[in-house]
Write a structure and sequence with these properties.
Largest sheet: none
Shape: globular
Helix content: over 70%
Strand content: under 5%
Number of strands: 0
Number of domains: 1
Oligomer: single chain
Length: about 260
């Protein structure tokens, strides 16, 4: 039993997970299915007493998925749980934490940040989840990663469909500023820690294949490209709401 637990919570020395395989797409498709089911049942959920229980359960799973990452490191010293290497300076982590508070308190500000950070930052982790290269479907880290990186989307869409929350242009600007502040913190953390530190992937390309490999290694060019891409993703994330408002305005003017 002990050997099994060490294996299950540990990681391999060879590649166990590959991008664009069944193990990659299955969790994403499951999350999409849950989101579609939420949309279909949105009216019933809105009027149901289960709504509060569902929101609280989602919040609990969000916090659990985030904390389980650190609990695993502490439990297995061979994983090298150096606090300096695992500081809470990640878009994915904070987006999930913020979203958990949205589930409980329905905070519009935290909803805005969660929405834009998920669709403009965390989306890269779904495309190329490089951090689980050595932990496939037989490992705990695989399930912890996918729960952490999909439940935020489920929570955001739940609040959109059931509670009719939505972002605005002003909230997009606030979320962008908040991300810029996190990027500044990541930059100084990388500088202070030195070689090996790569918070927000600002310092260098990842060791395993990633969508970020297309970025230039030069820091200034790398930062410039990342700013341009993330700015575009922020705009794309807001575009459906912009078009919806524009259509509503035209309809109102016509009437």
């Amino acid at each position: 039993m002990k050997d099994f637990l060490i294996y299950f919570f540990g990681q391999g020395t060879e590649v166990e997970f590959s991008n664009f395989t069944f193990a990659h797409f299955a969790p994403i498709l499951l999350a999409i299915a849950i989101i579609l089911l939420t949309y279909r049942c949105r009216n019933k959920l809105r009027e149901s007493k289960l709504d509060k229980h569902i929101r609280y359960a989602l919040a609990f799973l969000m916090i659990l998925s985030e904390m389980a990452y650190y609990w695993r490191l502490v439990a297995l010293p061979e994983l090298g749980p150096n606090p300096v290497d695992h500081l809470p300076i990640t878009v994915c982590g904070w987006a999930v934490v913020f979203c958990s508070y949205v589930m409980i308190g329905k905070s519009q500000t935290l909803f805005d940040i969660s929405y834009f950070w998920l669709f403009s930052g965390s989306i890269f982790a779904l495309i190329t989840p490089t951090v689980i290269t050595y932990t496939g479907p037989t490992r705990f880290r695989y399930y912890q990663f996918w729960l952490q990186h999909t439940i935020g989307y489920i929570g955001v869409f739940y609040m959109i469909f059931v509670h009719k929350m939505r972002p605005t242009f002003r909230s997009m600007v606030k979320s962008y500023v908040a991300l810029a502040i996190l990027a500044v913190i990541a930059y100084f953390a990388n500088r202070m820690i030195g070689p090996g530190a790569n918070y927000l992937f600002l310092a260098k390309p990842e060791e395993t294949p990633s969508v970020l490999d297309i970025l230039p290694p030069n820091f200034f060019l790398r930062t410039l490209v990342m700013v341009a891409v993330i700015s575009a993703l922020f705009f794309v994330s807001y575009l459906p709401w912009f078009l919806k408002d524009r259509k509503a305005q035209k309809t109102k003017t016509t009437v």
